[in-house]
Amino acid sequence: MSDEILLKFLEAGVLNVGSDDTKLEKLRDTTKDLAAALEKTPARTTQWTLVAVDPEIPAQDPIVAEAWTALKKNWVTVVNSYQSVPIALLRASLLDALVQSAAKNDAIAVAFANSARNMLPHMPLGDEAGVWQAAVERVEDLVDAKAEAEWTTPEAVQIAPMAYDGAGDIKIGGGGSVLKRESLQAKILAAAGATGGNNANPHWPNNNPSAWAQEFASRMTVAVADAIDAVSKANAIAPVDLSPPLKDLASAVGGYVGDVMQAFSAATSGLQRRANLLWWKEALYSPSARISYRVMEPFSAASIMALDLFEQVPTFSPASVSAFLNEAILLLPKVSAREDTSVPKIVADLLSDVQTAPLREVAKGCAPSSEGRRPVLTIIGHVSPETVSGIAFRQAVGLGDDVRMGPAQWGAHLFRELQAARATQTANPKRPRRKA
Questions:
Q1: Among 194, 197, 195, 193, which residue's Cα sits nearest to residue 214?
Q2: By the 8 A CB rule, do 423 and 315 touch?
Q3: Does residue 203 register a pLDDT over 90?
Q4: What pTM did the predictor assign?
Q5: For the residues 178-189, what does the mean pLDDT come to?
Q6: What share of the chain is helix, strand, coil (3-state, %, to 5)?
Q7: Per-residue model confidence (pLDDT) at position 434
Q8: What is the pLDDT of residues 390-400, one digit of tens each?
Q9: Which residues, 6+ apart, have CB-to-CB distance to 381 below 8 Å?
Q10: 9, 15 contact by CB (below 8 A)
Q11: How far apart are CA 22 and CA 8, in angstroms?
């Protein structure tokens, strides 16, 4: 994809390096250096994109100057080949570097795709428009693949079997003692009177059957009971403490149930998110401003709707989320009759509206003040209503008085800027390299 971008710029006639292949190699080396620099500071992705996409970016912009320095390092005689700073050459190198970095870093991919998608309709790209469109679509495919994993609800939730080793074998057994038959037999004979001696039954069944029977029963009861008690005592089982293995089992089951619930929650999070968004769209109520969007001015409502949607969705979201926001904004009663307004006027009104304070607070935190080309969020978060009129919007954010938007288009623009800012501030996920 790296060489493809440079070659496409050459084919479009935007770049002119002659037939000297060594110059192309110097450009490739420059883009590699720029990509390495961007990967160290992903938070600059939006600024780089806003510079690269604008054919009218001034040569004094800090990022243009940085790219110019990188090019002169790899192409020492470049200053002799161009009478002025070769803006088109530097922009092509920046775009190449952005795409290279986006292929490795998901956060950069999100920031680049959202920032470029915002600016493409408003830039005089001419012959290079096709190159930009192909590059953005390529990176958007990477973002959509990541978003699909977070938004898709699977048909079935795969749960692994519970892993439980259990306790060792619990052995329960007696002492192995048996009844002493000889001793019991001797006592039975004595009870029957069949033996002589002082301990024999003194009665005979043919002489006094009743007395003999009573004596026999009494002696037999004692003899049998003593025998049973002796065997039972000898084979008594020691107490077994089952609490440790039962605790281990309970812990294993509890952990497994927790894992199952977590897997189920993760698998159905996309469905739950969609349900929440549908509720939000139908209610048309702002959780941040705590009022209905219907009572707000159209551009203020669109701005707060962009903020509220941003806070409900993850960083990796499909492109259809912006379309969803667009449809939600169009539900507002005042939007259909609202004419398009210039970006400077929209921003000036937002800075003066007390209801958009939540947006200004978020913008201040996620879009730090910076020099050169910057997103509109930077103006919203760091400029006062009294000084906004002195800002040259075309130079600051790339959108001048000639760029006019309706509330729905403005809301989508703001939402993408928020997504881009969050991506490069809160994460730095590197995509694993594919094996050759």
A1: 193
A2: yes
A3: no
A4: 0.75
A5: 76
A6: 65, 0, 35
A7: 37
A8: 899 999 999 98
A9: 360, 361, 362, 363, 364, 365, 366, 367, 369
A10: yes
A11: 17
Structure tokens at 302: 């669109």
d(CA 342, CA 374): 18
Q: Provide the token pair at 261.
A: 């619930």
pLDDT of 300 above 80: yes
Which amino acid belongs to residue 303?
S
- 97-146 pLDDT, tens per residue? 999 999 999 999 999 999 999 999 999 998 899 999 999 999 999 888 88
Per DSSP, 193 falls in state T
> What mean pLDDT is reported for the chain?
84
Distance of CA 179 to the CA centre of its chain: 72
Say how far apart CA 333 and CA 220 lie, in whole Å.
Answer: 104
**Domain residue spans in the chain?**
2-151, 181-234, 284-426
DSSP sequence for 240-298: ---HHHHHHHHHHHHHHHHHHHHHHHHHHHHHHHHHHHHHHHHHTB-TTT-SBGGGS-H
**Token pair of 156 as six digits:** 């079935």
Closest CA to 91 of 123, 150, 48: 48
**CA-to-CA dists, residue 136 to 103, 126, 146, 329, angstroms:** 12, 16, 16, 25
Please report, to the nearest 10 degrees, the dihedral formed by the alpha carbons of residues 413, 416, 418, 424 taken in order: -140
38, 44 Cβ separation under 8 angstroms = yes
CB-based contacts of 367, cutoff 8 Å, min separation 6: 374, 375, 377, 378, 380, 381, 382, 417, 421
Is residue 166's pLDDT more than 60? yes
Out of 25-29, 257-261, 300-304, pick the least confident: 257-261
Two structure tokens written together for 178 = 């048996």
Residue 410 pLDDT: 96
Those residues whose C-beta lies under 8 Å from the C-beta of residue 315, and which sit 6 or more positions away, are 107, 110, 419, 422, 423, 426, 427
Model pLDDT for residues 247-298, shown as the tens digit of each residue: 777 777 777 677 666 655 655 666 778 888 999 999 999 999 999 999 999 9
Tell me if 372 sits within 8 A of 332, measured CB to CB.
Answer: no
